[in-house]
Amino acid sequence: MPRLNYHHLYYFWQVAKTGNLTRAAKNQHISQSALSSQIRQFEHNMGVDLFAREGRTMRLTEVGQRTFDYAEDIFARGEELETLLLKGQVTSMQTLRIGALATMSRNFVEGFIEPLMPREDVRYSLHARRQTSLLNDLSNHQLDLALTNIEVMGGDQQLLQCQLLARQPVSIIGPPGLSPGKGFSAHYHDRHWVLPSGESPIRAAFESFCSQHGFKPTVVAEADDMAMLRLLARDTSAMAVLPNVVVRDELASGILACYMELPNIYENFYAVTVKRQYRHELIGTLIGDFLEQSA
Description:
Blueprint: H1 6-18, H2 21-27, H3 32-46, E1 51-54, E2 57-60, H4 62-86, E3 94-101, H5 106-113, E4 122-129, H6 131-139, E5 145-148, E6 160-174, E7 192-196, H7 201-212, E8 218-223, H8 226-235, E9 239-243, H9 248-253, E10 257-274, H10 281-294
Parallel strand pairs: 3-4, 3-5, 7-8, 7-9
Antiparallel strand pairs: 1-2, 5-10, 6-9, 6-10
């Protein structure tokens, strides 16, 4: 039975960290061919492919990413042991890499990761991405979990698993002190509006709602980024169409007011993961806790 060669594992770890064989060889003061030979010997001994070699590019396979995670823990524990012997006790850490759609609500992301914040045994990193990059990084095992408001379905993403986390109501938000009356009254007709961009499902649903009421809003600004819409809603006197969670703090402080929750218009939030042989244990805990709190 082959035994794990930690010398080989260390070289693999260095290449996986840098993402470049030439750079890793230079850092380790070893020839590129010798380093490549060490890694191939490691793969042969373990009976696995740790890298998918595409020309000069070396991309981690799923088992390669899992091996890298273990290597990170192993060599981090070595550093902890050194610190322990020299300075005293240290705490071991788990790592979690979370991607989030660049245009979605930061308040929602913060609420989702909140259980991680007080934990001293977890190190997490957050990465903002466009949808395509988000899914590519998941598929390439560079992220453990992705948060998005765009549902992922079939097609080329068959290995991706999409879990609905929440449905947030969408409302008409504006400066405090207005008296538009109940329902969608004529008082809204004289207002300026800031709206999600035309590609947004929220925008399409709101335009359908307006059509039903024979109303054409005077749009003075639009954006596809919820953080920007939040600023526009806060810093202008216009009415805005937003999920309540985006302006949660402004509503609580009275900077903005919610005038009407739009019927049957919601923003959906999803957690997306890759179907893997080895599932990160923190993912199930995070999703489970969030769904339980939201129930």
